[in-house]
Every structure is written in structure tokens, then in C-alpha cells.
Amino acid sequence: EVHLVESGGGLVQAGGSLRLSCAYSGFTFDDYAIGWFRQAPGKEREGVSCILGTDGSTHYADSIKGRFTISIDNAKNTVYLQMNSLKPEDTGVYYCAADPASIAPPTAEKYSFWGQGTQVTVSS
After folding, report:
1. Quick check: 82 and 71 in contact, CB under 8 A?
2. Residue-wise DSSP of 33-67
């Protein structure tokens, strides 16, 4: 059974950094897409980044390009989202999700399996 568990969220000042982790199990990454999404209060869930098992390509939303990096450690079955130069508008619940298709750019409605989320709060 597919499971994803996020960790690494917290409170950070603007300009700071966090690294989120998504531990996954129950599937082979080679045939999946894994994405990071976020949702701020009162806003739609937003695709942040994704990585595709078919070719290893990475994709980013314009809102975070140049600041966030997605990566994978296959030995640990973990996907990371390194977040630098954080801004207050980055605040929200961050989720990782997976789907057995090459879905890029990340589109929340197309991803099948979701983690529980981890809170990221960026203070001014």
C-alpha cells in the first residue's frame, strides 16, 4: 500500500531555510511522479515542484523557482524539498503526493496518493 509521510516543517524567519522530507513506501519510484504541494489559509492547493521517475526530470512553479530544489535519495526512499530564501507568502501546509503517471507540472487534482502534511510558517 502506498504511504507518504512528510516531516521537517516548522517556524522560520523570512530569508531562512528549511528542508522538508517525504518518506515513501509501497511503490517503485521509476514508474511514478512525486510532487510537493502547499496550501495557505483561504487559498487553493498549489503545486510547488515534482520529480518524475521515468526520466528524473524536475519541475517548479514560477512562484518558487530559483529558491526551492526537489531531490530524491533512492536508498532512503525519501524525496526532499530544500527551501531557501523563504518568504511569508510561503507559509502553509506542505504535502507530498505520488501518482503512477508522469504528471508535470504538478497538478493536485491528478495526484492519487497523499501524505498528511507538515506546517511551514515564515514570519516577517
Report:
1. yes
2. EEEEEEE-TTS--EEEEEEETTT--EEE-TTTTTT
Per-residue pLDDT tens for 50-100?
Answer: 999 999 999 999 999 899 999 999 999 999 999 999 999 999 999 999 999
Instruction: Give percent helix, percent strand, percent coil of the chain, each to the nearest 5.
Output: 10, 50, 40
Torsion (CA) 11, 95, 49, 43 in degrees, nearest 10:
-80
29 three-state secondary structure: helix
C-alpha closest to that of 94 among 110, 117, 78, 123: 117
| Long-range Cβ pairs for the range 63-69 (8 Å, 24+) | 64/90
* Arithmetic mean of pLDDT, 92-121: 95
